[in-house]
Amino acid sequence: MLNLEIIKKLIATNFNPIWKSFVILIFGLLLTFSVSNYIRKEEESQSKKEFVLVCNDIKTKILRRINVQTEFLISGASLIEASNSVTRKEWKRFNKFSRKNIKFVGVQGYGFATIIKKEQLKEHLSSIRKEGFPQYTVFPSADREVYTSIIYLEPFDETNAQVFGFDMFSEPTRRKAMEQARDQNRAILSGKVTLQVGTKKESPTGTIMYVPVYKNASLNTVAERRSAVIGWVFSPFLMGDLMESILGARFLSDKTNIRLQVYDDNSISPKSLVFDSYKNRIKSKNSNARTSILSMVFNNKNWVLVFSEPSEKAFFFSAKVMIITIGGIIISFLLFALSFSLLITKYRASIIAEQMNESLKKNYKKLVSSKEKLKNTNQQLQKAKIKAEESDQLKSAFLANMSHEIRTPMNGIMGFAKLLKEENLTSEEQRNYIKIIEKSGTRLFNIINDIIDISKIEAGQMNVSLSTTNVDEQMLYIQTFFRPETQDKGIQLVLKSQSDQEETIIRTDREKLYAILINLTRWVQLFKVKNIG
Question: In this structure, are residues 32 and 324 in contact, taking their beta carbons and an 8 Å threshold?
Fold first, then answer.
């Protein structure tokens, strides 16, 4: 784990590698968002293309279905034109065969409306009632010059039977479409109408297709067509059912995101709206939507198809974009963490290197100092070696001298002790031998004490016992002690003192002082120095 103190130091010292890590992070995030935005725009562009393709495909399907219905109505018109009279059973049989085809799903019915002049109305009512419809009448009832009553309508079920006898000329929109079909001799779609057949819904909106039926006449002019027309084959379409049959329930379900609105007469207004796939949905407050407006023309009839895609889908983040965005963010942070870790490691390594360098410098100084100390130690050892060699030499000389010094009194002791064993010795001789042995023993004792003192000095075990010592008293004792020995050697040992002075009292080791004075007196005897006091 990173040391918090190191990070604080890095921040406090404006450590450049940390900012490099942040630059890497920012660059990674910018690159990620740039790529994500590019992919999103590409997908949005592709989505727009697909949206336009879907819109054109829907338009084609609608137009194809209308053309199919047109062909069928033309076939019905041809049937009536080719026959002197088409009975109700023949019409039923013709439509029963056709309605088995899946292409006619959504069509409310196929009918025929005949033209009835005012003077022909009574005869017409009587004829239809004789067919088994005693309640038949043409409605709405009003005095008109021409009536267009629905006499055939299949399937002739309960709901369709309600418009049996309906005069479609009585409604302006229907009449306009019927007159256009008559005058132009082609299939015509009516404007927006409220259908009265085929549904239980309130005010069902739809349209009606009309194909004129003529009888044995020239149709080159409008006047000729008006004179020859005997009625219209028609088919009412409930727009919701028609679009559902064309587009399928999946497109019109709440799960789809494409909205289709169909407007009549090339006018986009609520009044001209004939179909809205979002009719039963809650309207979104969001006005941002992708829109495509297509115009569909059928025999001079214009429909405006308005396709819209709500902003929730038009401005979306797909799974691919989300994966790229999230993946890029994760990779950017991983690169940031990796670079940060590497740079921190490098920084810590540089700190450790500096510390090691400082440590090496200190160690080098210590090494130089140790080398000097070692040199001095070697010199001291060399001096100590010389001193040791000299000491060894002195020890060797001392031992040689001591062996000689010890051997001399020992020979005297051993020799005279052996002579004491001889018989016939006089008392004087015995006393002289014993005296010599005593002197030799005293000498040997003194030599041994000297050796012991030297050994203690070298071993550092010589202890000093301080006490008040009278120097004059010790000098007088030594003079008395050595007087017999010095007299025998012809040496005069004189002690001089001034009687008017006080005694010489010092604080020292009594025994050590005594040993020093004894040795000095012995050296005097050794070199036979006279008059020393």
Answer: yes
CB atoms within 10 A of CB 483: 14
Cα–Cα dist 188/299, whole Å: 6
Residue type at 106 in one-letter notation: G
**Edge-to-edge strands of the sheet including 273-276?**
273-276, 259-264, 301-310, 289-298
Q: Show the tokens assigned to 296.
A: 């569909």
287 by Cβ neighbours in 10 Å (0-12 / 13-18 / 19+) ranks as exposed
**Residue 315: helix, strand or coil by DSSP?**
coil
Rg (the chain; Cα; Å): 73
The two three-digit tokens of residue 248, written as one number: 């399928």
Query: Residue 439 belongs to what H/E stretch?
Result: helix 427-459
From the list 135, 209, 128, 202, the residue with the least C-alpha distance to 168 is 209
Phi, psi of 531 (to 5 degrees): 55, 45
H/E run at residue 216: none
Report whether 3 contacts 306 (CB < 8 A): no
The tokens for 504 are 């010489």
Separation between Cα atoms, residue 316 and residue 41, nearest integer Å: 10
Tokens of 422: 């001889």
Cα(65)–Cα(212) distance, rounded to whole angstroms? 20
Q: How far apart are the first and last CA of the chain?
A: 90
Residue (of 272, 206, 211, 293) closest to 244 by Cα position: 206
Question: Tell me, what's the pLDDT at 401?
Answer: 67
Helix (H, G, I), strand (E, B) or coil at 89: helix
- Report the distance separating Cα 223 and Cα 226, nearest Å: 5
Residues of the chain with pLDDT under 50: 1-2, 198-201, 314-315, 529-533
Residue 193, Ramachandran bin (φ over 0: left; ψ between -120 and 50: alpha; else beta) = beta
pLDDT tens profile 367-388: 888 888 888 888 888 887 887 7
- Relative to beta strand 205-214, strand 259-264 is unpaired
As a whole number of angstroms, the distance between CA 315 and CA 286 comes to 12
Return the bridge partners of 154, or none.
110
Rounded CA separation 26/336 (Å): 9
Burial of 208 (0-12, 13-18, 19+ CB in 10 A): buried
Q: Are 68 and 101 within 8 A, CB to CB?
A: no
| Helices and strands counted in the chain (H then E) | 12, 12
User: Using CB atoms within 10 A of its CB, is residue 524 exposed (0-12), middle (13-18) or buried (19+)?
Assistant: middle
Q: Where are the beta strands (DSSP E) in 315-446?
A: none
pLDDT for the residue numbered 376: 85
pTM: 0.57
Q: Which residue is listed with tokens 């076939």?
A: 75
DSSP 216-233: SS--SSHHHHHHHEEEEE
Structure-token pair, residue 416: 């005279």
Residue 239: strand, helix, or coil: helix
SS3 164: coil
